[in-house]
Each structure stands twice: as structure tokens, then as C-alpha cells.
Amino acid sequence: MKKVDIFSAPVILNGFDDIGVKNLWRLPPDLYDQVNRGVAFNSRCAAGGRIRFCTDSERLSARVVLLEPCMLPHMPLSGSSGVDLFVNGKFAQNWRADVGKSDFIFDYALDGKMNEICFYLPLYNGVTGFELYINDGKTIGAPKPYTHQKPVVFYGSSITQGACASRPSSNYVSMVCELLDSDFRNLGFSGSACGEDNIADYIANLDMSVFVLDYDYNAPTPEHLEATHEKFFKKVRAKNPNLPIIMMTRPSFDADIPDSTRRRAIIKKTYENAVANGDKFVAFLDGEKYYGDVLRGHCSPDNCHPTDLGFERMAMAVYPVLKKFLG
Questions:
Q1: Domain boundaries, the chain
Q2: Is there a shared CATH topology between the 2-141 domain and the 148-326 domain?
Q3: In the structure, what pLDDT confidence band is assigned to residue 20 with cuts at 50, 70 and 90?
Q4: CB of 114 within 8 A of CB of 62?
Q5: Residue 209 has what pLDDT?
Q6: So what's the pLDDT on residue 29?
């Protein structure tokens, strides 16, 4: 078996800040001292990160080294610390470390034809090592480009990051972009996305196709949300006058209806003010409508984070709006 350098062409890394830096972090290292501790820690989680290539190898082998052992009480290890393999666009296998372990090894047999490979990396753990091997004498090629190569950027809470999906590819961010064959950046920071100016400035300078603003749950109070939401939007809009921007509210609306109602009004006001000012590139999505009434109780394990079913319904709510903006 021969080792493949995942940081070198023709392998493509998607979902990270800078493939020129040999780490799998979602924010640049020089931003770490400027953000809150939660954002700094969670940005080392690989949520939305993908390793993509094609190969004619009959076998894939890998050793994955995680940032730390992970055992969240409300989320399976297959999602928090697992790796998904897709072959030719179809899910093939999930691997994860045993409880209390921070590394694992896996093998997968292929047919020896040229196959498109995509690894989705863990939602709630960092990857400090990904040693990938293919058969001797076999080749690595560039993957097929996404239909929409400029990424959709999502900023939000633990829900955006992916709690409580059963697999890395099963949160709404990954699912809706899989449907649309679009690259994406997941900038969900569990418990820590508070709409800070420095994050708004960072996002405003990204090259993106659509921006999804979804940090309702992490604003500590409605007052904080009101003080930051429109300000955040305006920072991004000032640098990107024609960028489509989607504003979303929390999915578990009925967990606290008075608080959810107040927060929804704040976010909708940002949207309505933009429309009143002639902005034609904005959309508003009401979280109260994401889950629907059928099997509503199966959409969340804790009246906050979605299950796979909840994420699928979120993806279906976002899909038509995102599709319209992507064209």
C-alpha cells in the first residue's frame, strides 16, 4: 500500500479555511485569539469538512487520529466522531472510534474502476491525522467539480454544526448541499455563535455563493439578538451587495413559544428592513414550520437539536430557497 498526502493535489479538501495550511480547521489560526473560547475550540472540529478524490485502487485504508475522545450524552459517536465514506455519490460506510478512544483504522474494498471518493469528517471532533493508503501501482485523480463550486456559507449554532445527526453527512447543511451538488462551509459553533463583529468581518470577506445566517439559538437573550442580528447582516451586505442571504429562525419553536416568537420578530425585522431598502437578495425562513406536525416528536431528542428526521425536514425547507438563489 502507498500513502496519499491529503494536503496535496489532486486531492481536494472542502469546508476548511485554507488548504495551504496543513491542518483541518474551519477558521484561520490568526483569528483564534480574537474569538470567544467556544468558537476557538469548535472551529477545530471538522464539521462540513470533506476529503475528495478519485482512484482506481481496489482498496482504501486509513488511520484517523482525533483531537480527543468524544462521548456526548445525546449524540451518537458515528456523528460526533465518525467518518462517512461516499463512493460515486452514494453512502457506503461509517467508521468511528470506540468509546474512550481517539483513533481508529478502517479498510474498504472497491472494484478497481475509477471511483469518486468523498470522506465526510466528524461533526464534533477535530482530526489531527488522516493517514490514507491505496494499492501500489494505482492512481489518485481530481474529483469531479461541484455543479456549484463557490461555497454556500452557513453561520450558526450547534444545530448548524450538526448536533444531533447520526452521521457527519446527515445534518441539514450537508444534506441540502448534497441535493444541490454545491460546495459549502459549515461555520456552526456549538453554544458560541453570538454574532460577534470579528466573525461578521471574517465571513464578509469570504468568496461565497449564498450566505445562511442562523445563530438564533446562541444569542443569549432576545436583547442580544436584537443588538447583533441586523448589524451582522449589514456588515456582510456592505462587502457583498448582490450576495443572496437567507435568514433562519430556530427549529424547536414550540419549546418556548414566547421567547421564540420574540426572536422570530427580531430576525424578520432585519429581513423586512432590507426589503424596504430595496434589497432583492434576501429570504426569511420561519423555523416554526420546519418540522411540521407529522411525527413531530421524533424530530428532536431534547427539544432543541434535530435528529436525522429533523435535519431532513430542515433541509427540505431550505432547499427551494437555496435552489432559487443558486440558479
A1: 2-141, 148-326
A2: no
A3: low
A4: no
A5: 98
A6: 85
Q: Which of 44, 85, 43 is nearest to 67 (CA)?
A: 44
Closest CA to 315 of 160, 88, 89, 209: 160
Domain 148-326 homologous superfamily, CATH: SGNH hydrolase (3.40.50.1110)
- CA 174 from chain centre, in angstroms, equals 6
Three cell numbers written together for 79: 456523528
Taking Cα atoms as reference points, which of 53, 179, 183, 62 lies closest to residue 115? Answer: 53
> How many CB atoms are closer than 10 A to CB 238?
10
Q: Which three cell numbers stand for residue 13?
A: 479538501
- Residue 19: pLDDT band with limits 50, 70, 90: low
**DSSP H or E segment with residue 86:** strand 82-87
pTM: 0.97
Q: What is the DSSP letter of 122?
A: P
Stretch (H or E) spanning 149 = strand 148-156
* Residue 235: closest CA among 269, 270, 275, 283: 270
What's the pLDDT tens digit per position in 205-257?
Answer: 999 999 999 999 999 999 999 999 999 999 999 999 999 999 999 999 988 99
- Asked if the model's pLDDT at residue 33 lies above 90, the reply is no
Distance from CA of residue 253 to its chain's centroid? 22
Q: Does residue 122 have a cis bond before it (omega within 30 degrees)?
A: no
Mean pLDDT of 31-50: 94
Cα separation, 85 vs 91, whole angstroms: 6
Mean pLDDT of the chain: 96
Q: What's the CATH architecture for 2-141?
A: Sandwich (2.60)
Q: Is the dihedral of CA 125, 126, 128, 134 positive or negative?
A: positive
